[in-house]
Amino acid sequence: MKIQRLRTVSKLVLTVGDVARVLAIRPASAVVFCHRAVKTGELLRLQRNRYMLRERWEHLSREERWRVANLLQVPSYISLTTALADHDLTTQVQPAYVESIAVHRSQVIEVGGTVFKYVKIAPALYFGFVRRDGVFIATPEKALADCVYLSSLHRYHLDWSSLETSRVNVAAVRRVLRRYPRRTQQWWAQQWTT
To answer: Which pLDDT score is estimated for 86?
Structure first.
């Protein structure tokens, strides 16, 4: 069966080209196969030309889901409350909700019950992330700086009461915020002192 052959592929996300190559069929036939496999529930369509075996999707680890987030919009990195929770800086947990920073466009993509939210920022502010286990994720300070920046523009709501303030490296956050607009730095100073 064709789906069994696709199970042998180690790639997390499959393109139509991958399907055509593995099944040894023409790309046009691979498009038809993918469309039918989505209808039968064997494949999950992530976005145009990106698919995943439904059974693989249902058993994804958190890091694999984040890897998918990085792939759905390139370039992007995991940030905001999603990254703060990973760095144990907030008690707020967002199951089935992944927040990322991107430079191309803001958008929300819903796939298989998971919401992938991308917030666009200026290219000059696209820094402060690392690659960990194949996932691009903001450093703790950068994740908080992204929250502060977007909150200062009224484009994001950070639940300050859930922030683990004793774990925040205030000096490091201030260093990161030096690259942000003055308005953001002032907003941070007001929030941090109250």
So the answer is: 96
